[in-house]
Specification:
Layout (H helix, E strand, L loop, with lengths): L1 H17 L1 H21 L9 H29 L2 H7 L4 H31 L11 H24 L5 H29 L5 H31 L1
Length: 228
Amino acid sequence: MRQFKAILRKDIVMELRTKEMVTSMGIYAMLTLVIYQVALSQSGAAFDPRRIAAGLLWLAFVFTSMLGLNRSFVHEKDQGCLEALLLSPVDRPVIFLAKAIGNLLFLVIVEIIMIPFFSFLFLQQGSYQGEFWMIPLSLLGGSIGIAGVGTMLATMSVNTKGKDFVLAVLFIPLMYPLLLACVSATTAGVLGGDGHIQQFWTGMAAIGAYDAIMIAAAWALYEFILGA
């Protein structure tokens, strides 16, 4: 537990000093949502943007997540922290858990920034009749899977030449089942109504199953990945 706290504290303190990762992720997410809103503004009054708003939110969040995951390990590699962790008597799964929790905290901060901005752009007051509480809950469930699996994939790609490209190639296919469930659950929250309650809980069940299976696999494989 002391090792876990030390690694997690190091990541948080480093981010508090520089504020590079959260700032870049937050600005990138908001700019992406603005571009989507501008594109949809020319679709005509008959088009309801709420039907695809959840998909646009998750597109922005996934791209933002890849940016943050890549930067979290690039700092470790450039400053020699990763080599120091490998030389220290720390269990590899402890490193995975600390890095994944740190990435999850940063993703949650970005979500706190994104949700009000997303609501302002796509869920205009007066026309929104959905279940708003479903949106942050589905985002949190998806963030757990993204942080866990993304931490493993970022570790694999950090030593390659094309870090961003390799991470994207590995990240998107593995995230596909999770994204389907997340978009379904978030869409239920955006549209609302009794007919979408079952859709939301079905999506959340799929998110929970994915998180449990994939994070357990990442936990078990991380020692071999980091050793390689």
